[in-house]
Design goal:
Number of strands: 16
Largest sheet: 9 strands, mixed
CATH class of the largest domain: Alpha Beta
Shape: globular
Order of helices and strands: EHHEEEHEHEEHHEHEHEEEHEHEEHE
Oligomer: single chain
Number of domains: 2
CATH topology of the largest domain: Aminopeptidase
Length: 349
C-alpha cells in the first residue's frame, strides 16, 4: 500500500462528497447499496447530532471505512442518557492491520454515554477489546409458516414440490396457533395514519425498572412516519383485546414473503401477546407468508412464547458499553427492553 498515512482522516459522512459515499456502499454493501445510497442520512439519523455522525475514514477523498450509528436517548433506572446503536463497522481490507477500525470505533463511542450493538463475528472481538459487555438476554423468534418457500430448501427444488410440502406442513401451525388466537374477524391491520398512530401510542407501556430507548414523538416521527418503509408498516389490533397492539412490516416478495414484528406496545402482557402473535400468524398463513420474525430482549416473554408455540429461537449477540460509573455498577442487573425497531434488523435480510 503506497498511500500516505497522514492523508487518512476520520470525519463525518456529512462532510464527504456523496458520490464517494455511494462508491463505498456499492463496493462493500452491494446488496444494500441502493437503499443506503438513498437513505443513509435517514438511517443514521444524522440530524440528531447536528450532522456529526456517522463517521467515515477517508484517504485523500476516497472513503475507506465507516462506523454507522443510530443516535437516540435511552432511559435507565429513571435517568436519560445519550445513546447510539452501532450498526455497521467496516474498513477496506487494504487498510487493515493499522488500528484504523479501533480508532474509528473509539471516536464513535465518544459521542455517547451508552453504546449498543448487535455485532457480527468479526466486529464482536474488536468491541470486546475496548470494554463492551454482552447481555445474556437476546432472542430472535422465528415463526415458520410455509418453511419450504424459504432458504431452508435449495432453489433447484421445483416450486410445485415446495407447494405440496407447504400444504401438508401448514396443518401444524394451524393447529398450534388456533389454540391461542382470537377469532378470524377480530384481527385488524391498519395503515399508518394519525388515528392509528394515536391509538398505538396510547397503549405503549414499559417496566419502570427496564432500560428502554426513549421512543417519544420525535423518535416516532423519525422511525415510523418518515421511514422509507412506512407504506409496508401496519399497526395490528385485536377487537377482543383493546389493551395490546404491535407495529409490523409486511415484506411481500415473489417468493419467501415474511412479516417482521417491529414493536409491541406492552411486553408485560404475555397472554395478550400470545393471542396477538397467534392471530397474526394465522392471518399470515392465509396470505401466503413464509415466516414471521420478532426480536426481544425479554427472557420471560421468550420462554412463555417458546413453551406455548414451540417456535425456533436464535440468540444474536447484544452488547453494550458505558463509562458512566453508576451504570457500570448496574451493568450486570440491567433489564433491557429492545424491539426490532430499535436497530437495523429490518434491513438485515
Amino acid at each position: 500500500m503506497n498511500s500516505d498515512d497522514t492523508e487518512i482522516k476520520i470525519k463525518s459522512a456529512c462532510e464527504v462528497k456523496e458520490h464517494e459515499l455511494i462508491k463505498f456502499f456499492e463496493k462493500f454493501y452491494p446488496n444494500r447499496a441502493k437503499f443506503l445510497s438513498k437513505n443513509w442520512f435517514w438511517l443514521n439519523r444524522s440530524d440528531f447530532l447536528n450532522k456529526q455522525t456517522p463517521l467515515v475514514v477517508i484517504d485523500h477523498e476516497n472513503v475507506i471505512g465507516q462506523a454507522a450509528t443510530i443516535p437516540l436517548k435511552i432511559k435507565i433506572d429513571g435517568k436519560t442518557y445519550s445513546s447510539g446503536w452501532f450498526i455497521d463497522l467496516i474498513v477496506d481490507p487494504k487498510y487493515r492491520g493499522k488500528g484504523i477500525a479501533t480508532k474509528l470505533e473509539k471516536n464513535n463511542m465518544n459521542y455517547f454515554e451508552v453504546c449498543l450493538g448487535f455485532p457480527n463475528e468479526k466486529s464482536k472481538p474488536l468491541l470486546e477489546k475496548v470494554g463492551w459487555k454482552e447481555s445474556p438476554h437476546s432472542y430472535m423468534h422465528y415463526h415458520l409458516l410455509n418453511p419450504f418457500s424459504t432458504q431452508l430448501i435449495p432453489k433447484f427444488v421445483p416450486k410445485f414440490i415446495r407447494n405440496i410440502l407447504n400444504y401438508f406442513y401448514k396443518i401444524i401451525p394451524v393447529i398450534t396457533y388456533s389454540q391461542y388466537s382470537a377469532d378470524r374477524a377480530d384481527i385488524l391491520l391498519e395503515t399508518i395514519t394519525e388515528k392509528s398512530n394515536a391509538k398505538f401510542k396510547s397503549l405503549v407501556s414499559y417496566d419502570k425498572n427496564s432500560a428502554v430507548p426513549l421512543r417519544d414523538d420525535e423518535y416516532y416521527n423519525w422511525r415510523v412516519i418518515n421511514s422509507p418503509n412506512v407504506n409496508k408498516y401496519r399497526i395490528v389490533f385485536l377487537k377482543n383485546d383493546p389493551n395490546i397492539s404491535c407495529i409490523v412490516k409486511l415484506d411481500q416478495r415473489k417468493e419467501n414473503s415474511f412479516i417482521d414484528i417491529m414493536w409491541i406496545s406492552d411486553l408485560n402482557r404475555k397472554k395478550s401477546i400470545l393471542a396477538l402473535v397467534s392471530s397474526l400468524a394465522l392471518w399470515a398463513l392465509r396470505n401466503k407468508y413464509s415466516y414471521m420474525r420478532m426480536y426481544t430482549s425479554n427472557s420471560d416473554l421468550t420462554e412463555f412464547i417458546k413453551k406455548s408455540l414451540k417456535i425456533k429461537i436464535k440468540t444474536p449477540p447484544f452488547i453494550f458499553f458505558t463509562n458512566k460509573p453508576e451504570l457500570l455498577a448496574l451493568s450486570e442487573k440491567i433489564i433491557w427492553n429492545v424491539d426490532m425497531f430499535d436497530s437495523d434488523f429490518e434491513w438485515q435480510v
